[in-house]
Amino acid sequence: MLSNKQSLILTGLMAAGIFIFGVLDILDNFIILTLLTLVFSAVVVNLIYTSIKNKKDKLNSN
Question: Would you say 18 and 27 are in contact if contact means Cβ atoms under 8 Å apart?
Fold first, then answer.
């Protein structure tokens, strides 16, 4: 799904977005919250997907 580099970039983008939009006091904007939520969801879904995939690979290799 996402590579490690892409996940790190998205995580950094989300952290920077939270910081910048928080300083600018527009963090409660619906569009900003939606974009940050989508980025967060993509990282979490990728984390779960790779975790399940690694467990299946370990079971199949034995």
Answer: yes
Give one word for 3, left, alpha or beta, with left for phi > 0 and alpha for psi -120 to 50: beta
pLDDT by position in tens, the chain (length 62): 888 899 999 999 999 999 999 999 999 999 999 999 999 999 999 999 999 998 888 888 76
Side-chain-side CA neighbours of residue 17 (13 Å): 19
Cα separation, 24 vs 34, whole angstroms: 17
Q: Per this entry, what is the length of the chain?
A: 62
8 A C-beta contact, residue 47 and residue 2:
no
